[in-house]
Amino acid sequence: MKKIAILTSGGDAPGMNAAIRAVVRTALYHGIEVMGVQRGYSGLINGELFTMDRSSVSDIIHRGGTILRTARCKEFKKEEVRIKATKILKAYGVDALVVIGGDGSFTGAKLLSKLGVKTVGLPGTIDNDLSYTDFTIGFDTALNTVIDAIDKIRDTSTSHERVSIVEVMGRDCGDIALYTGIAGGAEYIITPEKGFSKEELCKVILEGKQKGKIHNLVLLAEGVGGAQELAKYVEEVTGIETRATVLGHIQRGGSPTVTDRVLASKMGAKAVEVLLEGKTSRVIGIKNNEIIDQDIDEALAIDRTFDEKLYKIANEISS
Question: Which runs of consecutive H residues, i.e. helices, occur in 118-257?
Fold first, then answer.
């Protein structure tokens, strides 16, 4: 193993820079050259590669986003485009590619591996929607960003005796809503995995009012529906002033937490170790607090499971 390349793909996530730093410096420590690929797979097929050294990743561990920048590349679904990518990597003398991203990015890595490119994937997504790993890089930071917003929203919600519906990201995964709903003391948590009844929600809010609750916090995962429409419905049915807040892309930004910085560093170092062992088509994850590597096909084939026990706890302590 003489030279590796690294790219970030798909949605950005806090901690990606920490992972880049760990991959680059671990590789250099072992005498491996490193090339950065700008703008993900799009940059790869356009030949946007450059040499990285230790100074390339100085003072980035605390920064959100990704210094390599990222982009989505629909063209990469075409085999002829992927063949072009393999030729570009070969032209630069690259022996292996490290990909940081979510399931779509991993699919790209898997397809490249079938063309003979050695690949390793790191789970970089705030959604925490990759089943083979307990946590993804960026998830913890996103949770803390949401909690900070919730705490502020509660202040004004209490002052005005309102219902506050907060919509968070996560695509079809409700982990952000579930974790922040519990940590934020929400009265109701709505996730794609469990769904909800508008009538039941209104009943919970009205029963809470009868018990003396002066405000209600509802966490809504984006994969279920729109906060604005739900707020309008709740206000019409309950007669209680209801406001919607869509947190949006602030959840992707910001300086990564200590948890994400350390997790990303461990995973980045593990990626290089796996390549040095001669493995390919692997993804890095964390299970039971241990950094693991797994076959990419097996990892992507695992059905995502929802934490029913945590959801049950949320319901029990919200009443």
Answer: 139-160, 175-183, 198-210, 227-238
Q: What are 104-137's pLDDT values in tens digits?
A: 999 999 999 999 999 999 999 999 999 999 999 9
Give the residue numbers annotated as catalytic, written as ranges. Answer: 127
CATH 3.40.50.450 fits 3-138+256-301, yes or no: yes
Q: Tell me the whole-structure pTM to 2 decimals.
A: 0.96
Q: Where are the domains of the chain?
A: 3-138+256-301, 141-252
If residue 5 lies in a helix (H) or strand (E), which one and from where to where?
strand 3-8
Do the beta carbons of residue 209 and residue 240 sit within 8 Å? yes
Binding residues for substrate: 125-127, 162, 169-171, 222, 243, 249-252
Which pairs from 56-60 meet CB under 8 Å and 24+ separation?
A: 56/24, 57/17, 57/20, 57/21, 57/24, 57/25, 60/17, 60/18, 60/20, 60/21
pLDDT digit string (tens) for 124-172? 999 999 999 999 999 999 999 999 999 999 999 989 999 999 999 998 9
Binding residues for ATP: 11, 72-73, 102-105
Binding residue positions: 11, 21-25, 72-73, 102-105, 125-127, 154, 162, 169-171, 185-187, 211, 213-215, 222, 243, 249-252
Q: Token pair of 74, please?
A: 């629909």
